[in-house]
Amino acid sequence: MPDDTPSDQRPITEARLLAMVNASGDSFWEMDVDRRFVHISDNMCRTMGYPREELHGRPVLEFMTPEYRAEIIRLAASRGSANDPLAHAGPIRHEGEFFRKDGSRLWVETVSVPVFDDHGTHLGYFGITRDVTERKRAEQALRDANRQLEEQLRHIQDLHALMREQAIRDELTGVHNRRHFVEVAQRELDRARRHGMTLSLVMLDIDHFKSVNDQHGHHTGDAALQAVGAMLSDTTRAEDLACRLGGEEFAVLLMGMGHDGAMERAETWRSTLAAMHIPTDGTPLRLTASFGVATFPLQADCLVDLMKVADARMYRAKSQGRDRVAGDTLTR
What we know:
By secondary structure, the protein is an alpha+beta fold. It is built from ten helices and 13 strands. It is rod-shaped, with a radius of gyration of 41 Å. β12, α10 (303-319) and β13 (325-326) form a beta-alpha-beta unit. The N and C termini lie far apart (129 Å). It has three domains: 14-131, PAS domain (Beta-Lactamase); 133-168; 172-326, Reverse transcriptase/Diguanylate cyclase domain (Alpha-Beta Plaits). The protein has helices at residues 14-24, 42-48, 52-55, 66-79, 133-168, 178-195, 209-216, 218-235, 259-274, 303-319, and strands spanning 27-32, 37-40, 92-99, 105-116, 122-131, 176-177, 199-206, 241-246, 249-255, 277-278, 285-286, 289-296, 325-326. α7 (209-216) packs across α8.
C-alpha cells in the first residue's frame, strides 16, 4: 500500500526535538530523583561553561547560589507527597542564580516537571532553562535609576522645605519674620472671629538697645537679639507664633489665651530676660525689655488695631521705667 503521508509531516523524533530546543536558545535537562543531571543539552553546557562530562551525575543544587538552593528546597517541600506522588505532577516555574564554572553568576528562569513511569513511580525531573541575566540586569538598572530618582526627589523636597523655612524665618534669631507673622496672625484672627475664640498679642522691645550696639558693638547686639529669639523659641507653645518684627522688636501671638494668661506669660519672659547676662569683652551685659499686651476681641477687633494697642502699651511700659509689662491693667 502506498504511503500517502506528506513528506513535510515527518514524525518529531528525539533528535529533531533536541535540535529545535537548541535552536531556540533555551536549555533543557533531565535529572534523577536526587536531582542529579542525567542529560544536559548543548546550550546548557555552553551557558554553564562546563563540558558535559563535568555536569553529568552532579546534583543541580551544587551549582546554585544559597538563596536559589533554599527556594528550590522550599518548593520541593511544599509539593512533596509520599502517599500520592502524582498529586503534584504539574509544572512549576522558578528563577534564581547559578554559578558558572568561572565563578561568575548566571540568572536563569526554569520551568520543570516531575517525571513518572506508567506505574506512578517517580523517575526524576525534566526542565527547560532560559538565561535571563540581561533581563535581570536591566531590571536592576531600572530599580537603581528609580531609587536615584526617588533620592533626588527627596533631596529636592528637602531643599524646597528648607527654602520655605528660610523664607519665613528671621535669619539672625530663628523666630519667624514679620511677613509670615502678619500672614498667619491675620488668618488666626479671622478664625478666632468665626469661632468666637480669644487670642492675645505680646509685643516686646529690648531696652536701651542702641546703647548696647554703641558701647559693645554689633556683635554683642546680635548676641542679645539671638538670646531673645532663643528664649521665645524655647518657651512658646507649639500653637503660638513668635516673630521678630524688626530691629530689637519682637511679638508673640498666643492662640486661645485670654488677657490675664498673656500678662502672666509676658511677666515670665520679662523676669527671664532680666536674669540673663550676655557675654561681652568686659562685664557681662544685663538684658531687659519692655512688654505690651493686647487681647482680641476685648481690646481690638482687627489685627492692625491689636498691634497698635500692644505697641502703645509697650511704649507705655518704657515711659514708666522700662523692664515691665503693660496691659489692660496698671503696669506691673
